[in-house]
Amino acid sequence: MRPTVHDIAAEAGVSLATVDRVLNRRPGVKAATRMRVEAAIAAIGFVRDMAAANLAKSRVYPFTFILPAGDNSFMRGLERHVRDAMARPSADRVAISLVIVPPFDGAAVARALDAAISNEPAGIAVVAVDAPDVVDAARRVQASGIPLVTLVSDLGPSCRDHFAGIDNHAAGRTAGSLMRRFVGQESATIAVLAGSMLVRDHRDRLDGFRAALSDSCRVLPVLEGQDDPAATERLIADLLARHPDIVGIYSLGAGNRGLIAALQRHDRPRPRAVIAHELTPHTRAALEGDLIDAVLNQDAGHEVRSAIRVLKAKADGIPAVEAQERIRIDIFLKDNLPFADDADGMSPRPSSAPRGAN
Amino acid sequence: MRPTVHDIAAEAGVSLATVDRVLNRRPGVKAATRMRVEAAIAAIGFVRDMAAANLAKSRVYPFTFILPAGDNSFMRGLERHVRDAMARPSADRVAISLVIVPPFDGAAVARALDAAISNEPAGIAVVAVDAPDVVDAARRVQASGIPLVTLVSDLGPSCRDHFAGIDNHAAGRTAGSLMRRFVGQESATIAVLAGSMLVRDHRDRLDGFRAALSDSCRVLPVLEGQDDPAATERLIADLLARHPDIVGIYSLGAGNRGLIAALQRHDRPRPRAVIAHELTPHTRAALEGDLIDAVLNQDAGHEVRSAIRVLKAKADGIPAVEAQERIRIDIFLKDNLPFADDADGMSPRPSSAPRGAN
DNA sequence: TAATTTCTGATTTACGTACATCAAGAATTC
DNA sequence: GAATTCTTGATGTACGTAAATCAGAAATTA
Questions:
Q1: Is pLDDT above 90 for B73?
Q2: Cβ atoms of residues B173 and B212 within 8 Å
Q3: Which residue among B176, B331, B334 sits closest to A331, beta carbon to beta carbon?
Q4: Nearest CA-CA distance, residue A213 and chain B, Å
């Protein structure tokens, strides 16, 4: 059997109360006694049964998650994972309130942050819009002592405790590397489609992409489709008509529906390499239908769970191990697609079955 | 607060004992009463606190893991993850005994399985060698009612309960797709390096690779290096000398160290596309040093944790949700490498710094 | 030495569930 | 109607830890 607090007490020759004082860093233990107890803990290899401890503490962590509304598939997948976490509080004693705000609306996010502060949660996670009033609100969150994690889209490192998302510059570089190899020729003409250059993620991806490609290809000026399907489709159709020499398209935002529609309607062979971001039902179908060659993905489920872990750690005053919370950049081809039920690029699910942690 | 069993009792107007009988499917409850209780459970949205339940049951799951010895970096990484799981029994109440057997030795695996049976664990996970006596031993495990999971390397579906590993045919196809796009030309000459065609994983990968490439490239006869560094290096050096027209190499086994050494010593430009398997310190360094273009990887940590989850589910008589336990095929370029501490392709750690093959 | 203050022990209750026991009521059988 | 089964209630203990209380013992200060 695993050693318990009783075993520590016996080993150290002290009472249970003293062991408890040492374990929970309560005052009233002489330094010498404390060291005896700690030695006993090390000697018998005691590890606290967190399940029992949490049960006894009956501690709950009220967290607030702030997500954008809108029909962005990735964001809806993110919301689904948050709701999954809400639906299974059993495992981790987390009580999440979910706040949905209008998309691309800095003022709304700022208001939501201020509202969250007044509820005094144990932590806040937010899909940030990189705007001055959001930064101000984030600072107010920190000033009130509430841990703050940015999700997917970051603010500056100075106004949040942690960022649960991918390194978007590295993602752009990865896209660039793939693109360079997929087009397989020097001085090819490459087009880039973004949502908006006002969003930090998109800027970072573009920078990384250019850095990986600059010396071997010609990258056309960025097209900004505002992640709007109709507008994006027009942009791409126009692009394909005007530049028959285009061999690669990099879609670094969420405008994939318009891109796919334009490629589908295109009457000549599509550019040799098309790379997009985020595995959604649309991009999955496009991969399977050979309209897209590769999809870079961030696992929304991982991001949500990571955000929760970090918030809990911060709430407990334990420093989170940043290296363990890094979110990977997944690359999907049609050949290594995960099963539909298994990831974000899936068909909508009926309810919320519990999922395996990773 | 979350509803508890007491709330169910109050809602249904029955005693705690009756609620307990319903919850734990104990006999002695009239159908009508049972339905009242179940209705109450649904009405107040009760979810059993598994932490408390496991605490009360003080149930432990003794599992046996059987892994091959040897200096294969991937296997040592796998072992490290098993030891990690052993070192933190707090979370999941599993008690793992780890058995290390000689590599590529079916008889040894079979003996280990039989020895494990006599210990009556709640489940067994094994890195299988696809040999008749292993299959026989696996059937004996199943006959004795102990759940059996194959890890990384499978047996037939008929002689284990679950396979915790990647779809190696899909992995081969993925490698083929990447290869086709990386070499970027028709009728290119591609070489394949394997460990041994006697191993199921390697055969599957080769099949998938050929299926993805057959109509566009010329794939040379497979080289078998037995995952031995020196032998592999000679094979590759010889290959490069005899076939100056080779534009791609696919290393589908664990012979990466010899491959990398040969590429390093090669005095002419290396083939345009080199794709290998498993992110280890060696392949990571080769990726960073531009000796390899892409590495397909299976996350050993995920596999170990998945195996444990499945074994627990089987031990509890709960059918594991296969779709949730699928292991992804990761693709790594130098641009999306995870941090060294974060994954298997890490720098050697003080505890067990394996060096050698792969 | 007396009066404090600081430390430690002993004990109890609690968290939410599992599980066992005993008694008593209800329904069934003969 | 008696004997038997089936069903339910009441109660207590246990899991491993947290947290509080109160009573002494030890160390410190006056």
A1: no
A2: yes
A3: B331
A4: 12
Tens of pLDDT, residue by residue over A279-336, are 999 999 999 999 999 999 999 999 999 999 899 888 877 777 777 788 999 999 999 9
Which A residues, 189 through 218, put their C-beta within 8 Å of a C-beta on chain B?
208, 212
**Per-residue confidence (pLDDT) for residue B88, from 0 to 100:** 66
Which string of DSSP letters, residue by residue, matches B232-256? Answer: HHHHHHHHHHH-TTEEEEEE-SS-H
Is the minimum distance from the CB of B316 to strand C below 7 Å?
no
- Beta-carbon count within 10 A of A240 CB: 20
Closest CA to A298 of A219, A204, A228: A204
Q: Best of B328, B334, B346 to disrupt the A interface by mutation (most A CBs within 10 Å)?
A: B328
Taking the whole predicted model, whether its pTM rises above 0.90 is answered as: no
Helices (H), chain A: 5-12, 16-23, 31-44, 50-57, 73-87, 89-92, 106-118, 132-143, 168-183, 200-213, 229-242, 256-265, 281-288, 300-315
- A230 touching chain B per CB within 8 A: no
**Residue A189 has what DSSP assignment?**
E
Q: Following CA atoms A162, B83, B329, B135 in sequence, which dihedral angle do they give, to the nearest 10 degrees?
A: -160
Q: What is the pLDDT of residues B296-347, one digit of tens each?
A: 999 999 999 999 989 988 887 777 777 778 899 999 999 999 876 545 544 3
How far apart are the C-alpha atoms of B182 and B205, rounded to whole Å?
18
Predicted local distance difference test score (pLDDT) of residue B344: 52
User: What stretch of H or E contains B78?
Assistant: helix B73-87
Specify the pLDDT at position A92.
66
Going from the N-terminus, what domains does chain B have, and what CATH number goes with each? 5-48 (1.10.260.40), 59-165+300-327 (3.40.50.2300), 168-297 (3.40.50.2300)
pLDDT in tens, A152-177: 999 888 999 999 999 999 999 999 99
Closest nt by CA–C1' to B15 = D9
Distance from CA of B271 to the nearest CA of A (A): 13
Closest nucleotide to A32's CA, by C1' atom? C7
| Residues found in chain B | 358
Answer whether B51 sits within 8 Å of A47, measured CB to CB: no
**Which residues 92-111 of chain B have a CB within 8 Å of chain A?**
none
Which residues of chain A (43-72) touch nucleic strand D at CB < 7 A?
46, 48-49, 52-53, 55-57
Q: In A, which residues are within 8 Å of B338 by CB distance?
A: 326, 328
Structure confidence at residue B115 as a pLDDT band (50, 70, 90): very high
